[in-house]
């Protein structure tokens, strides 16, 4: 083969490799940018999808060439953004308000809020922020904890059937709004979340090293409730709900 032809082949190969690398780099940058715009739960799923797609992207680039692969990559990115867009919480990075009637209290830290006082209004599932209450029984293999019913009743007595406004931070992977319920009738407490901890019906949520704890004052309220043996703290060995879910529900070691 003449040296000139060989040189042209080498240059063409280098150019092809360079274009492939550019395509992968652009795809990676797109994933990073889009991932930063998504909620935490959506981001995890999106990134997993990205890693799973990488072999397919390489195969497409080899089969159809750089230009067509770039177009297909753009289409794939748009499709993935559309698929995960609904998981982004409203007003991400800010607090937001929801107002409605409490139509159901599921347990000590979960309720359903219906828009306004209209039966046709949208329902919003609310998970109280920064706290965790004793688990209720959930089937034969998931026994409940002591004070689960008492915690549910305490929350119901305060909000059931009422029209309330809640201050929310985000939505979780189950689509629940993570919120505080403001109150003014029990100073110096400012939220129903705090009142539950103060009464001994909830823990300050210290699961995963406290990453779900937004209100640090709950730690002092919990210490006071424990010292006074209020509610669940009357038990000598109270088990935190996040521990119960692992040790009892997952591992079958249910000791209270």
Give a verbal description of the structure.
- With 256 residues, the protein is α+β, with helices and mostly antiparallel strands.
- Helix content is 46%, strand content 16%.
- The chain has helices spanning 3-37, 40-64, 66-84, 148-159, 192-198, 217-227, 241-250; strands spanning 96-107, 110-115, 123-128, 131-132, 163-171, 177-180, 203-204.
- A hairpin with a 5-residue loop joins strand 5 (163-171) and strand 6 (177-180).
Features:
single chain; about 260 residues; alpha+beta; OB fold (Dihydrolipoamide Acetyltransferase, E2P); 2 domains; 5-stranded mixed β-barrel; 7 helices; globular
Task: Write a brief structural summary.
This protein is of the alpha+beta class. The protein is 46% helix and 16% strand.
CATH level-two architecture of the largest domain: Beta Barrel
Strand percentage lies at 15-25%
Average pLDDT, to the nearest integer?
A: 79
Q: Which secondary-structure class do the elements indicate?
A: alpha+beta
Count of extended strands: 7
CATH class of the largest domain: Mainly Beta
Strand order across the largest sheet: 1-2-3-6-5
What's the SSE pattern? HHHEEEEHEEHEHH
List segments where confidence is low: pLDDT < 50 over at least 5 consecutive residues.
5-11, 36-44, 74-90
What fold name stands as the CATH topology of the largest domain?
OB fold (Dihydrolipoamide Acetyltransferase, E2P)
* Major β-sheet profile: 5 strands, mixed, barrel
Number of distinct helices: 7
Q: Helical content, roughly? A: 40-55%
Instruction: State Rg.
Output: 26 Å
User: What's the number of domains?
Assistant: 2
């Amino acid at each position: 083969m003449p040296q000139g032809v060989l040189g042209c082949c080498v240059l063409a190969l280098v150019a092809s490799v360079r274009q492939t690398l550019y395509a992968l780099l652009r795809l990676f940058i797109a994933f990073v940018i889009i991932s930063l715009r998504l909620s935490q739960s959506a981001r995890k799923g999106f990134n997993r999808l990205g890693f799973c797609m990488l072999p397919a992207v390489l195969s497409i680039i080899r089969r159809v060439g750089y230009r067509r692969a770039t177009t297909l990559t753009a289409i794939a990115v748009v499709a993935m953004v559309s698929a995960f867009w609904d998981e982004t919480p409203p007003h991400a990075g800010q607090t937001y308000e929801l107002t409605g009637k409490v139509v159901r209290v599921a347990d000590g830290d979960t309720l359903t809020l219906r828009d306004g006082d209209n039966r046709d209004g949208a329902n919003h599932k609310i998970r109280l922020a920064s706290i965790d209450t004793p688990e209720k029984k959930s089937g034969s293999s998931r026994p409940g904890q002591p004070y689960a019913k008492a915690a549910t009743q305490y929350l119901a007595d305060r909000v059931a059937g009422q029209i309330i406004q809640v201050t929310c931070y985000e939505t979780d992977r189950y689509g629940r709004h993570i919120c505080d319920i403001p109150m003014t009738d029990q100073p110096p407490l400012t939220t129903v979340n705090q009142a539950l901890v103060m009464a001994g019906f909830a823990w300050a949520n210290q699961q995963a090293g406290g990453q779900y704890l937004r209100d640090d004052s709950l730690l002092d309220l919990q210490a006071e409730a424990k010292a006074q043996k209020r509610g669940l703290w009357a038990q000598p060995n109270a088990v935190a709900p996040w521990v119960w879910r692992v040790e009892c529900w997952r591992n079958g070691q249910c000791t209270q």
